[in-house]
Protein 1
Amino acid sequence: MIEKEASAKEYMYNYPPKPSEGLTLEVAADTDKKGAKAENSVADKEQGKIKKQYEDLIASNQKNFDATLKKTMIESSQEVEELTTMFSRASKTLISTTIAHRELQKKFDAYFQQSDTYTKECELKISHLEIEVKNVKNDYATFDVRFKEKEAICDQLEKTKIEQEVELNDLRKVS
């Protein structure tokens, strides 16, 4: 007797369910035609009332759905607007921060370049001073050797002078 599964949609729009044709023919054969007409008109009225109730319920549900959908769309558009505003502010902040970072990076690069140049110049001056110190040290070492030589010569001359003075004094005494 049941030919297919019942669905909610079919139940809502086709309530009460219509009997299958085979069943209708059997019932029609069993009952007389007058009773069937009377019952059919009462059943049709009942069916019309129930169908109208379901149509009203469907219309009411559709109105509620439309109102809820409209409200949801308005709330969604407001939320999209808020998020767009937040995104715009964040983008603006990001751009200004990026620009400030680039400026600081340029200043830092310039400072690094200057300090690097200054460091290289100082290292060059230090290497020149080290060379000069080595030269002066060599000159002092040379002067020290010459001074010792001159001092030795001076000491020897001093001894010779003393010896000659002693001889001169001896000669004067003798004479």
Protein 2
Amino acid sequence: MRIYTQVDESILEQIDKTGKSRSQFLTDAINSYLILDGSNPELIRAEMDHLRSTIESRDKEITFLQGHVSQLTQLALPQMTEGEKEERKHWWHFW
């Protein structure tokens, strides 16, 4: 069965950014709507907002830890001279 509808260009851009085909996106949206029928949309929205904030805080924590690991790595590794750096770059030539 085919269903046709008019959709704003901005919504199409958002759909295209998901990486799914438009038909798959609409199928998923319809299935989600039917599954959530009878659920409180405000409750769902609040849960989604909570999940977004949790993801944002985890992303910030990951970024902080990546920077910290980078700093620790720089402190832990001895400073190499230019010759040593050049030697390390060409270690694979013996293969």
Protein 3
Amino acid sequence: MQNYAASNRARWDVTIVISRGSVRQRKTMVLREIYEADFLKLIRLLEVKPEALNDLLQLSTQLTPKTEDDKDLETQRQEAIALCRRHIQATVDLNGDGRINREEYLRRVEINEREIVSWNTRTTSTEERAIQLSMCVQAVANLRTIWEVGSDEDKQGMARHLFEYITYDLGTGKLWISN
């Protein structure tokens, strides 16, 4: 695909399918405005509305129920955090009684606080799915934004990187893509 920017009505070199009678393929030019408008429609169809994100996550959870590992991880997390908090409290008590010096007190508290942070950052598979789904939704929204404000070169580069083949059907006026 090449953009011939001879005028404001530049064209893209794309494969055209004529769907009258037998299917024939040939390379030809399509007005840039038509091609880009159809490509933007395609990107908008890929978008997920924010209110539908929770529904998708619930559907994902229903299709793949919580595993024992998720339940075990959550139980382990809660127990480990509670244990670290008890260790911190015991360290405070030992320091208050004068049984450990200030440096030892700070070292023990820091170790336990780091352990709590470590356990809080571990995620279950459900949380991972939610994060991945959010990232995908954001990536598609970014595609639309880049397409709407991008230069002609940016648009062509994005189309080339996203799809291996882009075919425009003149008979139906549809854009066909494949990887």
